[in-house]
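quick one if you have a minute, typing this from the bus. theres a chain ive been looking at and ive put its sequence and its fold in token form underneath. please have a look and point out which stretches look like helix strand or loop to you. anything you notice is useful, everything is just below.

***
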Amino acid sequence: MPTRNQAEFLPAAVASVLMQAEGAAADLELVIADGASTDGTPALLAELESRHPGRIRWCSEPDAGPADAVNKAVSRARGEIVGWLNSDDLYVRGAAARALEAFAARPDLVMVYGEGEHVDLDGHDLGRYPTRGPETPLSAWVDGCWICQPTAFFRRDAFQALGGLDRGLRTAFDYEFWLRLFKAYPGRVGHVDALQALSRLHEGGITLRMREQVALEGMEVVHRHLGTAPLHWLVTHAGEALAACPFDSEVETVRAHLNELAERAAAWLAPGGVEQLKMQMRRHRGWQIARHDLVADVYPDGWVPPQLKIRLRQPARPFRRLRLWGRHDSPRGGRLMLGVRGLGPQGDGWQGGTSRPGPFEVSIPLPPEPGAALHLTVVANTSFVPADTIPGSRDTRPMAFQLAAAEPC
């Protein structure tokens, strides 16, 4: 278990590991590599070790990042099979035993992984990780990582034979390692068809805190192992970056920086890819909607999640209403009803929408407060996941409706 300055999460993560010590995993040990934390983690680890003698071993020293910490922990592990849980994630009961049973059933396997779920800071479910089985062709990995990292258990000898994680990567070291392992041991990775772990998404974690580096390193890893990197890595990040506007960043500053990122990615793209990437970013619906005082957190193609986040800065002469133009295209049809949170006591009861599929327009009343920073959430009463409702679709995004434009007035 690698950790650094995550004392608030450690007790729950450690408890989720120790509850695995049953059945085939009865002899489990936990090795923790702390990167010289300054939040009281070493004292907490000493306390946990004293409460669980013989189960926990740990060290606290400077390291070269999370990949280095994992490599150190694996090198100190004594077991043949190793699980890797970050200190802000959680195992579910029986995960280790199920993994060991999979290895016992197929001794040729070098790694197994299972299903994962994303949870928020408080442990609330955010949905399943988009896992795909080991039979998935390597070519499909150009679109992203299909393994939820904390669900993976691997043979220590195989990990060390491959040289461990790439310490030069800060975010995509797991993704890169999976690709190396699949290529080195074809047909020797298995899947546990059960929920194995909960991966926590929060602002302090790598996945959300380092989105720009996640996108760039993902493209670098794809180019290293699979060839030309798809453009969507940075197109998706464009929406994430714009979502910080207009309070934390200026829209035009973010757009200029995204164009600079496209230039930095040139080595991983096909010829002409930089200009094509810039064009696709400009076509991102979030890019098109964004203005100096408003952004909407939409998917690149204009679809929105069941809870659409809109950030609006009121001017000195405040806007009275926010107009949204959209299209109700859910395959389920029926009535689309929208509510809004963040309008204040007098406006949070607002409802609008459309009674039938097709284009619609709503006008949302705004609190007339000069200079107010409004964080609005438009909540839809219905949504769908294409992969669950449209034959042949692999699109796992939850969708409510399409947003064409947003304009305060």
